[in-house]
Amino acid sequence: MKFSVLLLLLVFINAPFSVSAKGSTHPRNGQALVVQNPQQAARLVLSRFGGKVLKVSKKKNRNRIGYKVKLIKKDGHIIYVLVDAHTGRIQG
Fold this sequence. Notes:
Nuclear Transport Factor 2, Chain: A; 4 strands
């Protein structure tokens, strides 16, 4: 388990990161995605809350794409944060 978390964290750290409205578009409505992949969502959440990412999953709600990020903070609390892929807004 610890190896998996460490490996996942290393992938997130080494992944290229750029938040841009010029990114890919949503296939149904043509809106540009600010957050284009799980790695970007994780890095966005880490920059705001710190800690370690445990899991990132893609979510769809009312034709909106987002990411649910599970992380453990330095004080040991586990929190879930939602990232809207269209706006980059963090909720939770």
